[in-house]
Structure formats: C-alpha cells, structure tokens
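Throughout our pipeline, every protein is held as a single compact record rather than as scattered files. Nothing more is needed to write down the fold, since each code stands for a local backbone conformation. For reference, a complete record is included directly beneath this paragraph.
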Amino acid sequence: QVQLQESGPGLVKPSQTLSLTCTVSGGSITTNKNLWSWIRQPPGKGLEWIGYITYSGSTFYSPSLKSRTSMSRDTSKNQITLQLSSVTPEDTAVYFCARDVSPGSWDYWGQGTQVTVSS
C-alpha cells in the first residue's frame, strides 16, 4: 500500500520560502501515469489544490499560486518537494501530499503537516 509522509518546518516567517518534503513508500513516484499533488487547507476553509508533479517530472500549478510555487522530486529518495515563496499569514494551513487517481481526484494522502506563517 502506498504511504505518504509530509515533513518540514512548522513555523515560517513572512516573506520567507516554505519548503516541504513528501516521502513516498510502497510505490515509486516514477511509476507510469502517477501524479503527485500538494494540497492545503487553511483554518476554517476548504481544501485548496496547489499543484502536482507527474511521474516524468513535469509540473502543473494552480494559477492563483503559480508565481510563488515550485515542485521538484528526488527519485533516489522517492520524494517530492514543495517550495512556496514570499509567504504571508494567509499561507497558514495544513499541507498535504497526495497521489492523484486522475487530476483532482486522490486515493492516497499523507497525514498532513501544519505550517504557520508568523513573525
């Protein structure tokens, strides 16, 4: 069974870059047709899709976050990473990584990691 685990700092200062890592086990991030998404949930709000990276390393980002988002992968460690630059308190959220069954539909999720943006 595929398992995902997010990791990274829980507190980031405004204007800095948020960096998170998702470690995948039980399956390869390079398996044909797999997509791997980052999703977040701000307090009291719904889920917001940030973007995904494909099995071949291509990336697709939400238009609203595209200018500040970068995703990459380390195939040797079976990890995907998220960087979100110039953060503000509005970026405070629980951040999840997940595997897409198809774009926008997810079957495996990490447990999520809380990120707070505060000075």
Q: What stands out?
A: The CA atoms of residues 55 and 62 lie 18 Å apart.
